[in-house]
Amino acid sequence: MTSTGTFPVTVFRLPSLDERGQRRLAVSLDDQPVTVLSGQSVATGNRGDAWARNVEDGVERLTATVTVTEPGERELRLFMVDAAIAVDQVVIDTGGLPVSYLAPPESWHPVFSPGPRVE
């Protein structure tokens, strides 16, 4: 992290139904307290409900915030609370997030994403 502050973290989870009415996971940055995220995983039968929109998009967005007190390398942890959850992407918005339908392009990293693709 190159800056400090409180930033939204969005976990893009693949939508799925659960007869108990919940599919939860948790996030934590470094040793900060864990935040449990719950989505809507029960269909109401209404085509405009959140679950139906998530299925149409093929992803459910679960959001929390994390606080960065000093710049540097950080560890974002995801925890399983309920079984059978598939995570597609994780986005931390530190400002200047480009407008996109789902998630923005992957950010640059010297090891995992060593540079822009040349086509």
Give the topology, please.
Blueprint: E1 5-13, E2 24-29, E3 35-38, H1 50-57, E4 60-68, E5 76-80, E6 87-92
Antiparallel strand pairs: 1-4, 1-6, 2-3, 2-5
What does this structure look like?
A 3-stranded antiparallel sheet has the order 4-1-6. A 3-stranded antiparallel sheet has the order 3-2-5, with no helix packed on it. The two termini are 29 Å apart. The chain is mostly beta strands and 119 residues long. Helices cover 7% and strands 33% of the residues. A hairpin with a 5-residue loop joins strand 2 and strand 3 (35-38).
Low-pLDDT stretches are none
Q: What's the order of the H and E elements? A: EEEHEEE
How much beta, percentage-wise?
25-35%
Radius of gyration: 16 Å
Helix-residue proportion: under 10%
What is the strand arrangement across the widest sheet?
Answer: 4-1-6
In DSSP terms (H or I, runs of 4 or more residues), the helix count works out at 1
Outline: globular
* DSSP summary, beta strand count: 6
Indicate the structural class.
Answer: mainly beta
Q: Could you report the average pLDDT, rounded to the nearest whole number? A: 82
**Biggest sheet descriptor:** 3 strands, antiparallel
Q: How far apart lie the N and C ends?
A: 29 Å
